[in-house]
Amino acid sequence: MPEKQKPYDIQHYQKLDFFSKVILTHDLIQDFYTKNNGKVTVSFSGGLDSTVLLHIARMAAPEIRAVFSNTGLEYPEIVAFVKTFDNVDIVKPAMRFDTVIKTYGYPVISKRTSRFISDLQNPTQQNENTRNLRLTGISRCTQPGVLQKSMRLAKKWFFLIVAPFKISDKCCDRLKKDPLNQYEKEHGTKRIIGIMADESNMRVQQARRYGTETDKLLQPMIFWTRQDVLQYIRFMALPYCKIYGEIIEHNRKFDTTGEHRTGCMFCMFGVHLEKNPNRFQRMKLTHPNQYNYCINTLGCGKVLDYIGVSY
User: Fold this and answer.
1) Helix (H) / strand (E) containing 256
2) What is the pLDDT of residues 174-215, one digit of tens each?
3) H-helix or E-strand containing 64?
4) Domains of the chain: total
5) CA-CA-CA-CA torsion sign (13, 212, 254, 266)
6) Which 3 state secondary structure label does DSSP give 221?
7) Are residues 194 and 242 in the same domain?
8) 266 to each of 15, 45, 83, how far by Cα in Å?
9) Domain that holds residue 70
10) Same domain membership, residue 252 and residue 179
11) Tell me: the pLDDT tens digits for 37-96?
12) Is residue 298 classed as helix, strand or coil in its secondary structure?
């Protein structure tokens, strides 16, 4: 019987000093690049995290390529920023966002919550046990009778099961992961990504399980925090996308005067947690054309109304 994998001590690595994190990330990338004979790419979104990742990666391996998945939902400033870099391949999805939401549903609350609601909104004989797990947290299959709270939809979101629109977590898969996976299949490459565990509890759990490396990818910044990213950009005087505004320091904490995070402009994951002005209220002022298309043409306004978010 194979030995059970020990959990990755994410908290230990998160407590490392800033320069130790930089050195460790550099060495992880260099080792991964060498081990795979250079057949690796950096997943580059144009955001702050991946800008830092690409900079460190190209110190470890100057010729390393980057891949940008242009979903059609990026801020125009992000797309323009990405195009200032050399050695970046741009991939696009086979399915547009309007087709994704029509086919699968809207992305709301979180990826996990959307997946659970989708299971419950689409009942079949095949997913009966899964639907029971989402409602009760009690498994009928893998651990019969055992309560698994993490597999149960939070009761506060039960009202979304009967929403007058479909909900799904498939957006990221169709728009980002599919074209990146296709690229890797065609080129025989592995991926280096810039996700960080402090972005969500789910990522903490994934970090504890997988650490920095899996068979298909390396996540050498998993132990970084947003503060580390902003400090690196300030320390290295690194160019970054203007959508974030200025990086300022107050009470030994860094922050941005513009967008806090970017990504797909029309994504509704986590917007219910944002203080006003939230991302859509800001979009109304800074990108009115995209705002009108999102809220009215795509119907995101009715979704935000239903979950009680101002826009």
Assistant:
1) strand 253-256
2) 999 999 999 999 999 999 999 998 876 767 777 777 789 988
3) none
4) 3
5) negative
6) coil
7) yes
8) 34, 16, 22
9) 10-97+169-256
10) yes
11) 999 999 999 999 999 999 999 999 999 999 999 999 999 999 999 999 999 999 999 999
12) coil
